[in-house]
Structures are given as structure tokens and as C-alpha cells.
Amino acid sequence: MAAAKPVISAEALKKRLERFARLSLADLPTPLLDCPRLSEKLGGPRILVKREDLTGMAFGGNKVREFEYSVAPAIREGYDVLLHGAASQSNQSRLTAAMAARFGLKAVMVGRKDAHSHPVNGNLLLDHLFGAEVHLVDRPDEKTQVVERLKAEGQRVYNTSTDGYYLRSISYVDGFLELWEQLQARGIRPDGLYVCSGVHTHVGLVVGARALGLPLRVVGISPSPQDDEEDAANLARVANKVAEMLALDLSFIGEDFESYGAYAGDAYGTLTDASREAVVLAARTEALILDPVYTGKAFGAMLQHIREGQWKPGQTVVFVHTGGTPALFAYADELLDPGPSHPVHAGTYREPKAG
Length: 355
Ligand SMILES: *Cc1c(COP(=O)(O)O)cnc(C)c1O
Prior knowledge:
The protein is of the alpha/beta class. 41% of the residues lie in helices and 14% in strands. The chain is globular and about 55 Å long. The protein has helices at residues 10-17, 36-42, 62-70, 72-76, 91-103, 122-129, 140-152, 165-185, 200-211, 228-245, 273-286, 295-307, 332-335, and strands at 32-34, 46-51, 81-86, 106-112, 133-137, 157-159, 192-196, 217-221, 258-260, 316-321. Helix 5 links the parallel strand 3 and strand 4. The protein contains 13 helices and 10 strands. Residues 61-63, 66, 91-92, 168, 196-202, 291, 294-295, 322-324 line the site of pyridoxal-5'-phosphate.
């Protein structure tokens, strides 16, 4: 991407971010990890990982940073219920439940009855642990019924997906500034960023980079199949709104966004071979834990691009680790290749006889 002129300094952008109400939830700054064994193994670029999985609260992830901004209005304005509806292993549901526990609100999760809702494990287990009212449903209209019942009871319901929507991207303008500061302090000029994102993290990073005029390729990997062109147009729409909220003289079009749905597999939440390989490789080279649904797919895409020669030794790529690791445990059976050393075959252990 060609260099463009900065429209604001990092210091001034930080000041603009202070105009927004913000909760203090995350342990910041999150670490920036070097992956020398992985780089060497691939014979590729230098790889760094921005550890947004270590934002701290309730097993961390990008939602902790997002919620500092996006849930602040719910707390300030005295809402009663934090609501979220998604897949049964949703990280956002986990953090919605954790937030409600932390602030003494009621949490209502409307999860899908899907391939990873039984047995109760991973994020779903944590939803229960945080005291959320959990509904597992077969059809979307059952979610509407739950919401209508809450409203009829006179509860003020804050939906963490749709309320505070743009603030979630604002949080990753902040995340970008934090990352940039860390890179500068270490004298590193990255050539590319990889991130798994539906919308918010990707948009925030791109708005941050463009605001500072940085020539940086930001590759977004969608956790769901999509029409890439349509998605890019939507990301540009959100970015324009975010730029307006920050009073930045920037405008975006679809071509400003590189977002791929091809790495998601058949549907959201399905494990792909590339994701499994990424999860295993990151664990065995850097003791880095990815998840099968989000970061494994984005990391797998990055590995593929490196192997295709899109990134070369001498270049630097930053992988933004958005979290999601609790879901790993709900995918145990699919993640391990059931070869002879697989634990399912290991049921014959006997304590040696004493004496
Ligand atoms: C929610 C989530 C994402 C996508 O987040 P956006 O807000 O769409 O950017 C990526 N990775 C993980 C682990 C998530 O939980």
C-alpha cells in the first residue's frame, strides 16, 4: 500500500480517544511476542504476535478491549441486562457474562444449540460459571421471544452486538496506537498485519494506520464465509463512521480493505485442515495457543501467504492474536488426529504393584 500523508499525530489521536467514556478492564499494554522458531521453520519473514489474547479479564481476547468502550454506555446509563446471542462457544457471550458479573448486572445468553453446545465446555461452561441465564435455542425467533419477555418485564436490555457498535472499532484505533508505540520503541517497521475479524478489530487497525499515514498492508480474515467485495464495502462504511466520530479527515472505499472469507471453511465454527495445522504449529514452535474458530483460521491464512512467497525474509509481519482460546477445549476431539498416541487409545494404564 502506498504511503499517504498522516492526518493527525499519534499524541493528538490519543487525545481524541479520551473524549469517549471508557471502562478500565484490560491489562494494557498487551505483550508483543517475537516468534523466531516459527520464522526459522518457515524460512519466511520475521513474525511478531500482538497478544490481545492476554487482555486479562476472564481469559481475555479482543472483546475485553472493545467492551472498555462499547459497554461503557450501558454501565453509565444504568441498564439492567447485558444480552448476547451467538454460537454456543461464543467468546463474546463469555465476556458479556463476565462483564455482567463484574458490574452486578444480569446476563442473558441466547446460544445456538449447535455441534459444540454439548457436553458443556469451553466458553459455554464459563457463561454458566459467571451466572448468566443461558438459553440454547434451535431457531432465531426464540431469541426474539427471550428479548421480548425481558422488555415486557421492564428490563433495560443492552445487546453487546448491536449497541455500542462503532465504539468497538474505536477501541482498536486505540489498540493500533498501542501496538505502534511498542513497535517504534523496538525500532521495528512492520510490512503487514494479520487479524481475524468480522468488522471491528479490522476497521480500528486500518483507521489507526491510515490516520498516521502508515503504508501497512492489513489482512483481515473473516471467521465466516462471505462475499469479499460486499464485506469490504461494509468495512469502508464502518470506517467512515469511525473516522467521523474521531473527527478525522479520512474517507474509505471498499478497495481500502483486504478481507477474505475463503479461510473460514464451509461455515462459521467449522474446523478446517489449515486451522488445525496452524493451531498445532503455533503450539509446537512457540508454545502459542490459538483457537480453531478465529485465530487458527487467520494464522493458517498467514502461513499460506508466507508459503506462497507473499512475505519474504527481511520483512516483518504482525499477527494480532484476538483470543478465543477457551473454545479450544470444546474442539478437543476434532483437533487431535486420532493416531496411535491419541489419548482415546490410552486407556490401559495400570499402577505398578507395590513392592
Ligand atoms: C469476536 C472475535 C473476533 C472478531 O472480532 P471483531 O470484533 O469482529 O473484530 C476475532 N477473534 C476472536 C477470538 C473473537 O472472539
